[in-house]
Amino acid sequence: MNLQGRHLIAPLDLSVAEMEGLFALAERIISAPEDFSDVCKGKLLATLFYEPSTRTRLSFEAAMLRLGGRAFGFSEPSSSSAAKGESIADTIRTIACYADIAVMRHPKEGAALVAAQSSSVPLINAGDGGHFHPTQTLTDLLTIRLERGKLGDITVGLCGDLKFGRTVHSLICAFARYSGVKFVLISPDELRVPEYVRAEMNDFAEVRDLNEALPDLDVLYMTRVQRERFFNEEDYIRLKDSYILNAAKLRNAKPDLMVLHPLPRVNEIATDVDDDPRAFYFRQMKNGMYVRMALIMSLLGKGQF
Ligand code: NCD
User: Fold this and answer.
1) Which atom of ligand 1 is nearest to the CA of 288?
2) How many CA atoms lie within 13 A of 100 on its CB side?
3) Which of 50, 60, 242, 261 could serve as a FRET partner for 227 with CA atoms 20 to 30 Å apart?
4) Which ligand 1 atom is nearest residue 161's CA?
């Protein structure tokens, strides 16, 4: 696997073999993090966040710091020259003068692709509007792989906002390439998976009722209704509590179900689920840092460890 100098903009930018290489590296980092503590010494990571973030930005920064590199950037566009009207292309040209690798989150679909076209350093898409979020997918798949030992032959329920949820779109596109993956899409009619994502799946069912779908699932991927992508607040209010998973509902689920959520959660998982051994969302967020360490190393040409 040689990812040196590449961008990661969309989930299919990585082949299955390349993803597996990243997971293997992430697992080695998890088992001996101290072996990696100066792999990126002298390297700089820039974080360009035009949208709110807690986990993604901080896990990227923590990842770079844990590799012995350094990180800098902005966490709101009002503090960058975007506020003066600078284009994304010019901003990324600037950043490429200062940093060795960059991570960008932007509210517009396609923004990361536009930036990558003007970037002389590897650029990682940390979310472009309601489109894709490929490093969340690496996080999600690593979490499943660590628990089950492999990624095929599995029934995956995705529940909530499947229309605007970029983590859902990325996960489906990447996961559909493994054999024996069956998707159960659980959403209100108005929040169904868009056509370009639907086209990636070989085996899927669409349902409205979570309780009905739950007993068959090996993974349940809960998502937040993406308020910031709605055109009007009334629709958001009507749809926001469409699904609320709680301990009582989980009684009908498999004993080895994995409940995942990219976080942040609003109401869609009650806190009485948090102590259930099937709740994986906090472990998932930790795995995000390790797989981002593997990704940063690899894009910087230090993945042959
Ligand atoms: C997700 C995102 O930004 O798309 N968050 C994350 O990166 N973990 C999910 C969300 O905001 O609902």
Assistant:
1) 8
2) 18
3) 60
4) 12
